[in-house]
Amino acid sequence: MAIIDLISSVVSKPAGRILESSVRTLVNDLIRDHDLASAAEVDALRRSLRGLEGRADDLQAKLGTAEAEITELRDALANSNAALATANAGLAALQAETHDHVEPEVPAPAEQPTPAPAPAATPDGCQVPGCTKKHRSKGFCSSHYQRWRRGTLTGFVLTDGTVTVGDKTRKVNKKLAGRAYTVVDGKAVVAD
For a disulfide at 138, which of 42, 120, 154, 178, Cβ 3.0-4.6 Å? Predict the structure, then answer.
């Protein structure tokens, strides 16, 4: 309230106190009559602006720090790229040097080992092929049970009795929930 402060500074303290309430009332009436912001609203806005200025200063400082870190990372990347180029040039020279002096020995093709079959599900193990964890519920381990409940475990009838065939969802008997199924000729075949 610049007007009240001005009057208070000009008039003596006792007289200023008497005039202050009259001037304050007059100023508040003018504010109300002309739909202007009240002193409290102006003060609240000032406090908010000070807070925002503080936050902006903090963000500006963080931005400066981030920019400095980015510059350091770019410099480090440029140095790494230069070192890599030097190493590649040295490797190429070494390969050219060894290629001229040594004939490469070509090994005979190795026989490919046959992959081991997936472990069979144990009576108390998870029913998902390849999973060796103990079952928690409905024949699934904890992680597969959660995926099945959320509807993200493929190849098993979902909790609501639906299966996915291609890009379509088909309804089957809800009692089959949790059972494995395969798609044959566009039809879902539920395992026993």
Answer: 178
